[in-house]
């Protein structure tokens, strides 16, 4: 009796689509083509600045220009409180809107935010809670 060697591949038939390749390979090929096409033309303005678009057009609230770039946590908190109480573009309470905008900025900066800047913004959160009479 002869022993037959088998390859490591399974004996199941591979489902093939129109392109004649298994679905996983077609997906990888399409993904690679898309990456090559976008690398040639570069990212468009809308792809680069979607968070800016959200800040400008969402119903979050109207805030002072460059408020998050000031170095003082107290001034950031006071400005956010002032903006949130005066804004007509908010859906929630003034406190919710102000805290939401501060969190949005912190989250969008992500790992690019330096530690001292992150600490200042975290302190601004505490100051904002105090200004609205909320428990820390």
Automatic annotation (TrEMBL):
Bias (Basic residues) ranges: 1-43
Skewed-composition ranges (Polar residues): 75-86
Positions of the region Disordered? 1-52, 75-98
Which Pfam families has this protein been placed in? DUF3175
What name does the UniProt record give this protein? DUF3175 domain-containing protein
* Lineage of source species: Bacteria, Pseudomonadati, Pseudomonadota, Betaproteobacteria, Burkholderiales
């Amino acid at each position: 009796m002869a022993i037959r060697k088998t390859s490591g591949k399974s004996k199941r038939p591979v489902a093939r689509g129109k392109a004649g390749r298994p679905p996983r390979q077609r997906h990888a090929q399409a993904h690679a083509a898309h990456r090559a096409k976008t690398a040639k033309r570069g990212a468009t303005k809308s792809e680069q600045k979607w968070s800016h678009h959200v800040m400008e057009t969402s119903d979050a609230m109207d805030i002072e220009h460059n408020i998050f770039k000031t170095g003082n946590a107290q001034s950031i908190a006071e400005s956010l409180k002032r903006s949130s109480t005066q804004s007509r573009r908010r859906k929630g309470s003034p406190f919710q809107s102000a805290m939401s905008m501060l969190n949005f900025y912190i989250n969008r900066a992500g790992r690019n935010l330096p530690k001292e800047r992150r600490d200042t913004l975290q302190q601004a959160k505490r100051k904002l809670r105090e200004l609205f009479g909320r428990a820390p």
